[in-house]
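Field reference: sequence -> structure
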Amino acid sequence: MSTASAARTSEGGPVLTVQDLEVTFATDQGPLRAVGGISYSIYQGRTMGIVGESGSGKSVSALAVLGLVPPPGQVTGGTIRLGDLDVTAMDEDALPTIRGERVSMIFQEPMTALNPVLTLGEQIAEAWALHRVGTAVDAREAALAMLERVQIPNPIERYNNYPHQMSGGMRQRAMIAMALACGPSLLIADEPTTALDVTIQAQIIELMMEIQATFSMAIQFISHNLGVVSEIADDVMVMYAGQIVERATTEQIFGNPRHPYTRALMETIPRLGAKTRRLPTIQGTVPDLLDLPPGCAFSDRCPLAEEHCRQAVPELINHGGGHHAACFKA
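Structure field:
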């Protein structure tokens, strides 16, 4: 059992259910399908780690859950359900009512997500007031309580600080406080520790796990850092060129990766004590989503690819124990 699983043994129903999700961007060269019909669920109290190279569709699929796909992109197929609520059927004017209340998001760089002309306390209080009935005093007390919960020292003093007056780690804690102000059932964390040093990364991850254990939230954790994912995630989804190529528990993914792309990602992880002059890399480049090759999208970079791989698209199928992989050689 992983560290994350050992800390969270209780499991409820699915908080998020994504079925056949497609997200398409209109371009001068034609429609670009950034997310190509993916399906997954995240359960109460569990963390789904999502990994893959830039452009694989990780962040776009997360933005779709919040109804925040930037134009000219739009959800062109599938359904997104938060519990019993069909997000894809909601009117655009109604979507803000679920953001912060049912689902919240933590972004990679808080300096671009926080308002530079409002204090941290005001921004957290505003997030609370959008979904709760109460006075300005109530909102301030709720914001102070959240600052304390995310372990920001001297919360009364920090309440009046502006984002530029705080360190990167403190700003990220404030972002977590804002995201959790109304107790959402799903927290989406998009590269929340990438811009932080290793020590602060560990503190933020520990904080997220403690808060999850308290509130039994579901977390969708997006990261390039496989080491971080191995520590925090219960389940892992590997994406490539807008598709899920492998999905399984953390133990299955790291103990027995079945897709060649997943194995290649694992091989790029630096290891203490390993003597090598150069770190392994994945040969080639991610294919152009406007001009995907026939067959498996990874076939041009895959050392195991045969002619059949370049002609037919492998389906994501269960190879036993809930370990899904989209590969003819899995």
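Note: The radius of gyration is 20 Å.
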